[in-house]
Amino acid sequence: MKAIIRNLSDMSDSRELLEARTSPAITSFLVILLVLIGSVITWSFFGQIDETAKAQGVVRPNEKVSTIQSSTLGQIEDIFVSEGMYVEEGDSLIVLQQEEYVTELNYRLEELEQQKQELVLLERYMQSIEIDQNLFQSNIEEESYYYKLVEQFNLEYQQLELDYMTADQQIKSTKTELEQSQSSIDLNIEANKTNMETTKQELSKAITQLTEDIKQEKNLKLSIQSGKNKISSTDELRTAQYEQYSTQLKQLQVDLTNAKNTYETSLKLGDRFISQVELEQQLGVYEKATLQVTMLEKEALLSTESNITSYETKLEELNLEYSKLIQPNGSLQLEIASLDLKKEQLNIQEQELKQKTELTETAEVTSLQKYRLDRVVIIQASIDDKQSNIESIQENIQKIEQELENKTMKSPVSGTVNIVKELNKGDVIQPGEPLLTILPTDETMYKASIAVTNQEIGKIAIGDQVKLNFDAFPKQSYGSLVGEVTSIGSDAVVQQDGLRYYIIEAAIANEPLVNQKGEQGEIRVGMTAEAYIVTNSQKIIYYILEKINLKE
Length: 552
Fold this sequence. Notes:
Elements: H1 12-19, H2 24-46, E1 48-61, E2 66-69, E3 74-79, E4 86-87, E5 92-96, H3 99-131, H4 141-226, H5 236-269, H6 276-326, H7 331-406, E6 408-410, E7 415-419, E8 428-429, E9 434-439, E10 445-453, H8 454-457, E11 465-470, H9 475-478, E12 481-488, E13 493-494, E14 500-509, E15 513-514, E16 520-521, E17 528-539, H10 540-547
Antiparallel strand pairs: 1-10, 1-17, 2-9, 3-5, 3-8, 4-7, 5-6, 7-9, 10-14, 11-12, 11-17, 12-14, 13-14, 15-16
Helix pairs in contact: 2-10, 3-4, 3-7, 4-5, 4-6, 4-7, 5-6
């Protein structure tokens, strides 16, 4: 491209532009712009901005809502309320069918009256027994049963008197038997003599056997002491005992010899080959083996000596018994004297029988009194049972009356009815199933139940300000309602969306919201709102710097 060269005089338009002045409008615009920028900077430096946590809330009454539910299974008979209806405390709300309980109550009342009548009859029955007079009449149906009982008691009482008369006859019969017993004693004396002769023969045989046993035991002792068998070959028992002893002794002696040799060998080897501990252990084994040999010998001798002493004692007893038996004035005379004593005892029994006759007459009176008292005790037990039955029936009646009372659901407080479940006559309701709620209507304060996420809950504290924008009243027209956080849930709950939220509560005034036209929006229980919890306030400049990452 070829360059074009022009003279300065030819550039008249550009020169005019260079020499021209700036327009006043532009200057004004720039000044205004600078002022605005300065104002914004000043506002951002001194102004404050709130940091909020957004959540969803619902209005709840400040007082607890009363939930109406049945405590029993039943079918609806009548409904006295409708949605939004105002009820006073104690007003009937729903009545369940009561026919079955009314029938049961009437039956129990009749049963109670019957039990009370029977109690009166039992008390009269006891009085009849105590005064020995039948207070009942046989021609009255209710009393005929007890009339027969009293008559039966009188017959049994008379029979008891007759039994005592029979007992007197038995005593006389016993006296005759005693006389016969005295005759039989003479026969027993002869029989005892025969038994005595037999006893002498048995004692003689036993003495001979004991003498032989003592001799053989002494041979066993001598064998143990000498180490040689001196027992008769016919005595198999003691021969076996000695052989067993010899076998044990030989084994122990072998153990003793081995222990002794081991110890002496170790002793000769000295400390270089055998430690002092091992040497002491071997010495202990050697001493133990020595002790076992000694103990075996002593135990065998002690056992033999004990048997000899026992046999000798028994022999002395048998000799003494035999000497007494063969003495002219010994056992036989004692036996005869014993029979004479029995005769005397029979005489004593005869005297006692006479005394028994006298006592029987006294016992007759006592026993008859006891018989009457026993019947009184039985009747008293029946009275106690009847009173217990009456108390039980009365308790059942109270339960039925309580069930009847439960069949009528009444309002526990005054307020407005909110129907939780649509109800019709004839519907069956389950125990514990929520049916209605009663909302208090005289509250000056409500509370907002707000569900806060895990990410926001850490910023919130009790006393924080809450701004509520109600879905029913647009914020642009009605504005917001301001409250204050009063409680924070200690644990998270799972909502229907499957997420976990913390429930916080905020106190709000029961004041209507007013729009620009002057229309009022009444706050109602159950309304939903967006809640903005003010968690912090800071200068606007700091907030902007944080957003553009110029301030930590």
